[in-house]
User: Fold this.
Amino acid sequence: MIRKKQITTSIRILSLILLFSHGSFGQQSQTEGNYRQPMDIPMLPSGTFGELRTDHFHSGFDFRTQGVEGHKVVAIADGYVSRIGIAPGGFGKAIYIDHPSTGQTSVYAHLQHFNKVIDAYVKEAQYKAEQFQVNLEPEAGLFKVRKGEVIGYSGNSGSSGGPHLHFEIRDTRTQWPLNPAKYGIKVKDFIRPAITKLMVYPADSLARINGHRKQQVYEVQGWGEQHFLKDKATVLAYGKIAFGISTFDMHNDCPNKNGVYAVELFVDSVKVFGFTADKFSFDESRYINSLIDYGYLAKHKSRLIRSEHDKLNRLSMRESGLSGIFTVDDTLMHKACYRVTDHFGNTSSLCFNIKGSRIEKDTPVKNIVKQNGWKVTAGEATNLKKTAFYASIPADAFYRDQVLEVAESPDKRFLSALVKFGDNSIPVHKAIVFGIKPEPGGMNPAKLLIARIESGKVAGSMGGKLMDGYVVANIRTLGDFALVADTVKPVIKAVNFKPNSQVSALTSLKVTINDNLSGIDSYKPMLNGHWLLMEYDAKNNLLTYQVDERLLKGRNTFVLTVTDKCGNVSEFRTELRR
Assistant:
């Protein structure tokens, strides 16, 4: 934690100027709906709370910033800065403000930079740590802010895909994200959610959908309360069935397709499924992979919200006590209705008929474990050891019982056997410890890593370290794997200057750093023998030094050392003249 005594005299003076320009700091009571907007431009969402993202739910609202950076970002209420985060990915530059009067914390992320006082505080801390990435927790009250005070400027830092503000409200005690739409964040929205697809699944081996044992997809037409199945189709079913739906929401004056607030399903007026995006814990965010049809996502790059409840899905946003399954055991007509609500009260519905369709007595499909299959019971830890690999699966790795196809085969393209371990249509919750044995007498083990293989080619690195004769990594993806070596040094290139050149006219120096496989592990910039702050934008592989007094007049020596995760090192050395 950075203590107040560590702040330089200049920062103290700036703090006092800002404080007294506001007058005395008071505790004004905030109630639900009493927060102001975080920017003085129209609030146009490009992402909503609880939205379905890769391996997680979106924890706030993303607001468009008119395609540019630099809009003023202000505190939504009185409070104090409790945390400041700087990272090359994730939230990038983020600031957290506690509001004691409400017991809540507001979060502002992907910022370009902070206000002058906080920028100076952060820079001092970074130089003290000799590290760009920092997580700072100032003393309570060191940086007091008033409602509407500028705390930073919108940007595109971290893992942002374009200029925008990521905004959150959290419960201060638990740090659970809360839905900002319930706390006065105003968005123009008169548009009802869209429903685009229905999936019906057999929930056991006896069930049939339109006479088939496999899931059936139905296209959806219509709008608002008048969504219907294409051609007014009727679902013919028998046995235990479950459902899935594809849905999105839009807002006025905004082209983005965003997530919805709530999804409910009723069959014969009885509720069988409910999902509501009010709040959640970060610890449960990965349960999204149980809520959605993960296999459909892997194949079609599109998300369906499933009704069926997996036994190890502990997601609090899913209504408890509902199985999501409806049993058809007659030949009657049953009416099913989905009701979808957006974050500002607009609703849509999809109603369709399910007709009981008796079938002749049939032999159910048995869950036959193939010769190369490995049955894993959800909730039970288990281990598998083969000639070329081993896997240690924790109890919470899978949401439901699985049969994983496992195989190993020699392959001269790689430095180990090619290992098949399940496939990418099966979601993994808690990481699996996975080890592959290197071929004897091969490459330096320090250069080896586990690679994900697709169509016989390396598709990505899973990392790995040598342990007890195996290269071992924690994996959360299934598929084909093998060992490969990374012996290639990172590549360093100057972007806006030439080595050994005059740079007096430049306000910043930019350098790209790239690695071919294992990824960048660390970088160390030095100027005239002293550590230099260079901001790292990981998504663009870009390092930036904002020129300051450390670049002296005359000749300067700049050295940048970059190391990848397999220990390969590159050095860029040049003279800079100012």
User: Anything to note?
Assistant: Residues 116-129 form the longest helix (14 residues). The helical segments are 9-21, 116-129, 288-291, 294-300. DSSP finds four helices and 45 strands in the chain.
